[in-house]
Design goal:
Length: about 475
């Protein structure tokens, strides 16, 4: 049970915090568990690397493109209504995936999960922001971050156990229990929803965003099957790029844009999100390839492959607040530079891995370095981004940063089809590892060049929400 630090909070505030944590936990649990199940899905339903990419990216396309729209939907229809719709939709999609007979249907349903997931995270954060004030709000967000981060430990371990001893299909059934509990707690809460009738929904922006992301991602994944000269590849690429340009132009003149471009006038906000692209793109790419390689090439059981990154998850939870306090004292620039650099060095050590992998000598040292580096990065990165904008803009700023991190992962996973030539082997694995390390080093360079330490640093930046949480 979640313990609210401020003893003066009311029963409703406690319930809302627990509801927000459980709702977000569902979305993050699904994101952390999927890589473990990919080889088993391929073995039963067929398909190669491109099928595995689509199982991941179908979710990220709809999640990343709609997560900003969800904020407007919450304002118009009510946060609890949107939260309830997201929970029910996520649960139904999860159960349908568990019985899906084909890989194509799994991919379609993963896209539906992404739509539902996009409704969960912004709505849960909005509930916290509207329910808590002052220091109680900071504590609530800090607890939300810590508890939802636990999904990155629980998810892969449970997923590995299910894949090895039961079925990959039950991996998706994991969501049903927390969803049912959350829906029941919403009934117990009996909260009256608040709506903002003056809010306009940017439907055009949502459509342009989905097409703009989906087109290039489709082209990147399928170019290995059809070739760049095929109309099935270059037409989606062109349409997608044009849609992205139209999306940016529309956001400049939309009455209530999904993506307020004015935020990017703040240096640390814009440079911090550029760093997010490189850093979180590396996390998605590296996490995908390492878990799949350990199972498909090195022959690890799903449970052991899932446990490979367990030290990093524990490190992030235990060390992030420590580095957050140091960042509050010395500023985020140093930690945003050193952190990705150390994490990148950790990935470089994976180049020693061949088809036969010794976990303790070839995997664990890199995971430990990666854990330290990422722990050093997460809170300072979020602090730099949200500290650059006003408190009134914190909600949309956090949503933008979350969307950027998801889209970064979407693009890098799609790039696997360009990086990997032929079947996955040691040489192809090393290519992906080099790209992953290069992305982390690029994030460090962007941070060193672009981030400026604020004159007065927030004393507890670890209490804000991060894309990881």
């Amino acid at each position: 049970m979640v313990r609210v630090l401020n003893s003066s909070v009311t029963r409703d505030q406690r319930l809302i915090l627990i509801i927000a944590i459980l709702a977000s936990f569902v979305a993050f649990l699904d994101g952390s568990v999927i890589n473990v199940a990919l080889p088993a899905i391929r073995n039963e339903l067929g398909g190669g690397l491109s099928t595995q990419q689509w199982v991941v990216d179908a979710y990220l396309i709809t999640l990343g493109s709609l997560i900003l729209l969800a904020g407007s939907l919450s304002d118009v229809f009510g946060r609890i209504v949107i939260l309830r719709i997201g929970l029910v939709g996520f649960g139904i999609a999860s159960l349908l995936i568990a019985v899906a007979p084909t890989a194509e249907l799994v991919i379609v349903l993963r896209g539906v999960q992404g739509v539902a997931g996009a409704l969960l995270v912004p709505s849960s954060l909005a509930l916290i922001m509207s329910t808590f004030r002052g220091s109680a709000q900071a504590h609530a967000i800090g607890q939300w971050t810590a508890w939802t981060s636990a999904a990155f430990i629980v998810g892969p371990v449970l997923g590995g156990i299910f894949v090895d001893f039961l079925s990959w299909r039950l991996v998706f059934a994991i969501n049903v229990l927390p969803i049912a509990v959350t829906l029941w707690m919403l009934v117990v809460l009996g909260h009256k929803d608040q709506r903002s009738p003056d809010t306009r929904i940017d439907y055009l922006g949502a459509v342009l965003g989905i097409v703009g992301l989906g087109g290039p991602v489709f082209a990147l994944i399928e170019q290995g099957n059809y070739g760049w000269s095929s109309p099935a590849v270059f037409v989606p690429m062109v349409v997608g790029v044009v849609s992205l340009i139209a999306f940016v132009l529309w956001q400049r003149r939309a009455p209530q844009p999904m993506l307020p471009l004015v935020l990017f006038r703040q240096r640390n906000f814009s440079m911090g999100n550029i760093a997010t692209i490189f850093i979180y793109g590396a996390l998605a790419l590296g996490g995908f390839i390492l878990v799949v390689y350990l199972q498909e090439v090195a022959g690890y059981p799903a449970t052991l492959a899932a446990l490979a990154f367990l030290p990093s998850s524990i490190g992030i939870i235990t060390l992030s607040s420590y580095f957050g306090r140091l960042s509050g004292k010395y500023g985020p620039r140093l930690f945003m530079t050193l952190g990705p650099t150390i994490a990148g060095v950790g990935y470089v050590t994976f180049l020693a891995m061949q088809e036969s992998v010794n976990y303790f000598t070839q995997v664990l040292p890199g995971v430990v370095l990666f854990s330290i580096g990422l722990s050093m990065t997460v809170a300072p990165l979020t602090s730099a981004i949200l500290g650059a904008i006003s408190a009134q803009q914190a909600g949309v700023g956090s949503a933008v940063n979350n969307a950027v991190s998801r889209i970064a992962g979407l693009i890098t996973v799609a790039l696997l089809g360009v990086i990997v030539v032929g079947p996955l082997d040691a040489d192809n694995f090393h290519r992906v590892i080099i790209v992953t390390a290069a992305l982390l080093f690029a994030g460090a360079i962007v941070s060193f060049v672009g981030i400026r330490n604020p004159a007065q640093v927030d004393p507890d930046p670890a209490d804000v929400a991060s894309p990881l949480g």
